[in-house]
Amino acid sequence: MNWLFLVLAGLLEVGWAVGLKYTEGFTRPLPSVLTVIAMVVGFYLLSLSMREIPLGTAYGIWVGIGAAGAAIAGMVLFKEPVSTLRIASIVLVVAGIVGLKLSSAS
């Protein structure tokens, strides 16, 4: 269950990162409220996952999911540049996430 909490927390990190773009500096009420909710729930789920998953593993995976997901979302939603180097970098982040999971005792 802790790993599920961690993955959901990572996905919510992607959600609030994308949401920040839509808030336009927290000037738009609905995107601002949804972004803050995603932040709070994501942090809560991260904290639950850390009951059993080591800090370095949990935080590294959470940040990795957020970074890779935000980069992909930026390319898809905001037409940010897509390049071989960018895709390769995302693959390396995902490889790091898998490595942290495989090396975890939990």
TrEMBL record:
- Family annotation (NCBIfam families): PRK11431.1
Q: Write out the transmembrane intervals.
A: 27-46, 58-78, 84-102
State what protein this is by name.
Answer: Guanidinium exporter
Give the way it sits in the membrane.
Multi-pass membrane protein
Q: Which lineage do the record's taxonomy fields give for this organism?
A: Bacteria, Pseudomonadati, Pseudomonadota, Gammaproteobacteria, Lysobacterales
Task: Tell me which domain of life the UniProt entry assigns to the organism this sequence originates from.
Answer: Bacteria
The coiled-coil segments of this chain are none
Tell me what organism the protein belongs to. Arenimonas soli
Q: Where in the cell is it found?
A: Cell membrane
Q: Which key words tag this protein in UniProt?
A: Cell membrane, Membrane, Transmembrane, Transmembrane helix, Transport
Coarse class of the primary localization is membrane
InterPro entries cross-referenced by the UniProt entry: EmrE-like, Small_drug/metabolite_transptr, Small_multidrug_res
Which family, according to UniProt?
Answer: Belongs to the drug/metabolite transporter (DMT) superfamily. Small multidrug resistance (SMR) (TC 2.A.7.1) family. Gdx/SugE subfamily.
